[in-house]
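Quick one before lunch.
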Amino acid sequence: MTAFRQASYDEPPIFSMGSPGRTGTSEVWVGGGTDGMPKVALPREVAREGIRLPEVSQVEVVRHYTRLSQMTWGIDTGPYPLGSCTMKYNPKVNEDLASMDTVQQIHPLQGLDGIQGALSLMYRLERALSALTGMSKFTLQPAAGANGELTGCLMMRKHFEIIGKPRPEMIVPDSAHGTNPASAAMAGFRVVEVPTGEDGCVDVEALKGAVSGATAGFMMTNPNTLGIFEGRVMEIAGIVHDAGGLMYYDGANFQGILGRARPGDLGFDIAHLNLHKTFSTPHGGGGPGAGPVGVAKGLEGLLPVPTVERDGGEGGERYRLEWCRLESIGKVRAWYGSFPVLVRAYAYLLSMGAEGLRASSGLAVLNTNYFASRIAGIRGFDVPYGGRRRKHEVVVSAERLAAETGIGAGDVAKALIDMGLHPPTVYFPLIVKEALMFEFADSETKEAVDSYVEALKRVSEEAYSNPSGISAAPRNAAIGRLDEVRANHPKTMRLSHRHPQR
Ligand SMILES: *Cc1c(COP(=O)(O)O)cnc(C)c1O
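Model of the pyridoxal-5'-phosphate complex:
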């Protein structure tokens, strides 16, 4: 791997830079100049006053953000093995397409005649996602996975209201992503948790005990957050369906079965996909993303409005937005979705093709199992829940390392930063102590995976010989250890500039 040492600047927040009256744009004149030279005219009604923006020159802005960009890490800098996040390489052609004027300058209030191309893309993407998942119909509106979950939970609630039998409970496994119980609670459900069995899968006996006439649904991630495929999913769907409940598929891990298994065939009634995970789009900085939600046959009426519909056949087709859906839960987001993200996903689908998508999950699974098999021999690290094959991600536990050396998962992550590697997800899922969750996307090379194995070996050796060295990491990064309490509290959020706080 390329040796990496993060650039380091004592960069202040932009609000504390500049000086009063300094500006980054040319003076804008209303009307013509006195010297005969033409002046750019800005209509008075668009001028705004009293907004407190940083007063900085253009070059100050450019330098500020360039320096920040050198102090950060992205998928274009190196591997980004954040488990659960599917940080795959995003082909640049997708960016070119999403940056086209016809994408960037389109306005949601344009007339239908002017947006036929955009609607056609949305329609085709919706059909492709339905084909890939085995669902009947999708909404492209939700902004991300969590927004999709809320959409799905609201549709479940409405479904039971419509049939006149409201149900108050949502069952969620203890391995679930935190957004699952949060979304269920926001939609008004009481959350019932079921434990994970010794095989790393949902404890089916416990599930049987939890399911009742009060159960609206069961939210399931498959492969689950341990990276293990829930092999009893169809039996579970039977249990939930027999009680009159619905099955919700958290598709954040769809990468693990992409092109090989379809949630619709596994018994799921409602499913979201994270387009920014499985179907490209750079993410990690807070969005925008897209979390389309698909429903099984019979539930299409619940989908948010509007949906994109096609009239007429190929060649003479015309697309429109359908607002009139009596059973719809309404809108879950302004307008029609994160359009540039939809463009990237569609471009990705077209460039990969059915075979390419299938190959993508195969490579992700191969990378992860290769990594898992090499981790087994490293002192202090274990792969909990037996030696079963993983799908696209694997959770490693540093519990033994922590007990024997005092170096926990968080310290391991900081040590990796000093070796020029982006750490994995840490302390998730909650059911694994000292969890380090690795996901090596399809686009990562064997050399990239090997570099993590070698780095973890070094961390292990150092932990057993000189643990104090690691507890001072990272030393090679722009910023040392944050005070995690202050970092998470909006009122006291302050970076500990390069000075490690221990
Ligand atoms: C990422 C993720 C989510 C939430 O998706 P967002 O797009 O971040 O809102 C839900 N479940 C799992 C398993 C995830 O990894």
